[in-house]
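Feature request, filed as a ticket because there's no other form

It would be nice if the structure record came with a short human-readable summary line next to the tokens. Right now we just get the raw output. Example of a typical job, pasted below so the devs can see what we mean:
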Amino acid sequence: YSLGTALAVIGNTLIAVSLNVQKYAHRKRETQEEEEESSLCGPNSYLRSYTWWVGIVLMAVGEVGNFVAYGFAPASVVAPLGDLIVDCSFHDCIMCENKNDIITFFKRLIFIKYILPPTCLYVCIAVDRFCMLILVLKTTDCDCGFQNTSCVAVLVNGGLAMVFNNESLRMRDVVGASFAIVGSFLVVTFSSKPKLILNAQELIAHLGGWQFIIYMFLEIVMFGIIIFIKSQDVKNVFIHLSLVAILGSFTVISAKAVSGLLALTLEGKSQLGEPILYIMVVIMIGTTLFQVKYLNAAMRLYDIATVVPINFVLFTISAILAGTLFYQELSREPGINILMFIFGCLLSFMGVIFIAGDKGE
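Raw output as currently delivered:
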């Protein structure tokens, strides 16, 4: 469980960095297009950018970390865990045009992560001259020295962080991010945490469960509706990121299935002759590629300060719901845990509304 948690943190950290690198590539390309006024520059012109491909490689490495993590920890924990450590000022500094500013930022950055006892999730402290972010995720019965901190504390002073970027930071962004972090913490805390690895026969049985069939049907219908709305040239950040979230739910299920089957194979219970393994590999790769496509479309059109939090919450909720229904984890949980889990989901959505509201195009 601890190894899965650590891999999720590392993997999602790399993914967070990759998103910022890709956004930087998009902005740099837009500037070049305006200067060149070239007719050869199209919606996919970023594919010729070396910077964008660096971001893709970082994302791939991060996803590998997540993939391995699914073999050691539940999907309901892996999906949201790592994204909570993102320094809220990072995206503002990494996208500045002045390379010296980037170097200065990394020189001044102090990044300390304490792996606490099992009753604590973790503590992440990121400090630079522009922004301070302190996250303390802790339960009341933990004896680790952080007393009377059974909540998430977020202290942000990001006023000067905006000097390197045109994206603004508002008080409602801070409030929304706080809601999203607290909501995600509740989701992680009150979700079921057994380590469940299914063999091929058990995996097929779970795929045929009525709960998952209904969920899959609803997801496919929603995906079709959103694609239709998108074809009408409707501009909204939720359109692209909802597609990412829906695809992400299938990525999570397939990634955990493949990781589990390979883990059983390494234990001497070979699953390599089972067709379901290769079907899941195809689903995992296909959904991941389309997620990259829609996520990059969103980053071309909207501020990363909007894209990253909304994508985090939508993807997390979708992934947890899919994993919970597929593995039927909440069916073994007490009522209070289910209620707090739902409350965490709602709180995360409130955070999204605060962050995305009033930003316009």
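Something like this underneath would help us a lot:
Residues 82-165 have pLDDT under 50 and may be disordered.
Strands lie at 110-114, 120-127, 132-138.
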